[in-house]
Amino acid sequence: MSLTLHYHPLSSYCWKVLIPLYENGTPFMPHLVDLRDEKERAEFNALWRIGKFPVLQDGARDWMVPESSIIIEYLDQHFPGKTRFIPSDPDLARQTRMRDRFFDLHIQDHMQKIVGDRLRPAGQKDALGVEQARAKMKTALEMVDQAMESNPWAMGDTFTMADCAAAPALWYANAVTPFGDSYKNASAYLARLSARPSFVRVLKEAEPYFAMFPKG
Q1: Is residue 13 part of a domain?
Q2: Per the domain annotation, does 83 fall within a domain?
Q3: CATH number of the domain to which 17 belongs
Q4: Taking the CB of residue 188, how many other CB atoms lie within 10 A of it?
Q5: What is the SS3 assignment for 185?
Q6: Which residues pair with 55 in a beta bridge?
Q7: Is 208 a member of any domain?
Q8: pLDDT tens-digit profile of 3-13?
Q9: Checking phi first, is residue 151 left (phi over 0); if not, alpha (psi -120 to 50) or beta?
């Protein structure tokens, strides 16, 4: 088994990579890294000095691949399966990458700002930053709601890398600010994603760690 994934089960960006791994049944060795442990943190930082999840190691090629989108592209190229995550058509591939970045930058990042603020000690909260993040995330969710009015997946009828990004982004966004009936199409899209067997498995494996998620 040549692939090792350094990850944590609560990390949204790790979810994004686990989905395609499970989608295609790609063999890999999961390596859960506890960043609270100084030794494990030091070892992980020695591998990837940025110190952020996930990181994929390919022992057969002696290659280290960080960043969730790049990992998915690497898997699509070197470990293809029944589900292809990047369309072969250049225009569709570009649109897929754009949607992937949209979910990462305009939903996940703002969600993480809100969650990160909950971990700040008293007196060091960033109320303005959280307010701005919520407003930006609201705009992005409105755009998703409109886009998903008639599409089952982010790129239409085909499950792609964009959906791998959407699943953790929307799941955590809903946990931070429940959609309710505010975004019916986005809620229906999240329900479809949550029923996808690959994402069902990701959520099941994360369940034991949900108590660590900071509540509002």
Answers
A1: yes
A2: no
A3: 3.40.30.10
A4: 15
A5: helix
A6: 6, 66
A7: no
A8: 999 999 999 99
A9: beta
Backbone angles phi, psi at 159, to 5 degrees: -75, 125
Structure confidence by residue, pLDDT tens digits, 69-107: 999 999 999 999 999 999 999 999 999 999 999 999 999
| Sole residue written with tokens 């591939």 | 93
Amino acid (one-letter) located at 94: R
Find, among 177, 166, 174, 175, the residue nearest to 199 by Cα.
166
Which residues contact residue 191 at a Cβ distance below 8 angstroms, ignoring those fewer than 6 apart? none
Same domain for 94 and 74: no
For 123: left if phi > 0, alpha if psi spans -120 to 50, otherwise beta; the answer is left
Same domain, yes or no: 73 and 98:
no
Domain that holds residue 142: 90-196
Residue 98: name the closest of 20, 162, 149 by CA.
Answer: 162
pLDDT at 215: 72
User: CB 109: neighbour CB atoms within 10 A?
Assistant: 15
What tokens appear for 77 in the block? Answer: 């190229």
For the stretch 24-33, pLDDT in tens is 999 999 999 9
Q: How many domains does the chain have?
A: 2
